[in-house]
Amino acid sequence: MTGMTFPALLQHFFTDRLCTQMEASRHTIAGYRDTFRLLVRFAAARSGKPPTRLGITDLDAEVIADFLIHIETARGNGARSRNTRLAAIRSFFRYVAMNEPEWLLHCQRILALPDKRYVKRSVTFLDGPEIAALLAAPDRSTWTGRRDHILLLVALQTGLRASELTGLRRRDVVLGTGAHIRCLGKGRKERCTPLRRDTAKALQNWLKEWRSDDDGPLFPSIRGDPLSRDALEHLVRKHCLTAARSCPSLTSKRVSPHTLRHSTAMELLHHGVDQSVIALWLGHESVETTQIYIHADMRLKEKALASVAAPETKPGRFRPDDELLAWLEAL
After folding, report:
1. Catalytic residue among 229, 261, 301, 319
2. Each residue of 209-226: pLDDT tens digit?
3. Check whether domain 6-111 has CATH 1.10.150, yes or no
4. Exposure winner among 233, 257, 290, 295, fewest CB in 10 A?
């Protein structure tokens, strides 16, 4: 593989490294694809070369650093998106360093680029009245309204990720005794999430209405294809706007499909479910990931505060012992 060009290295990185050796998921490959599509266009515009003529020298540490600034300033990406792009770039240049040792120093300079720190804000979630308003928002006299209602119901009860929701098939729903939904989650971990009786009944009615083979999508588009992530985000925003008419508190919240997942976790936490169970429910790799919900839960903090007795001290007042200080204090 000595002397390979940048286009050849990039193609081998995707076909050999990601697809064959790592067996990366389609979501990972799509994320890496988008990163390098942006990077190649940026480097081509900067160097004045067509993408197929770019070389490794055209992608040095300075260019990568400027690209990261570009996606934050020109594209409006946040620090998290910037760090995700950098992670994909690092993965590629580790592959280059391993297969083309003459570029080792060049790659080390790029690999030394640091992640950017960012403010870790509390998660946004919906409370009981907001959940009820959102579920009541779809017009269930229409086919799409009934689909959206059951989709929102399943999302709020199971806490599935957006990709898990859109990837559900009819065969993933198991009704009857021990009703549950199977999904292939992040990291290719398969998990089963139990269903409440009302959710199972609603799903049963939906399956009777939406007839397709077992491999058909559980929540299809009007054309019968699986919903895209963009379509899912659009319908959540649309129904939030409708729900905000009866529940004004929704207007101050930026609700996305992931907000519904946070809402599930907070509902479980408010009902006394242990952190480890919530982590299993959501498919978290570690229980530590679930601690973000404890930080966001004011009820737990208020309960802890109520159990602490206030110190028996009287508030004092500063009294200056000098005439000049007393005069300044009296101003």
Report:
1. 261
2. 988 888 889 999 998 899
3. yes
4. 295
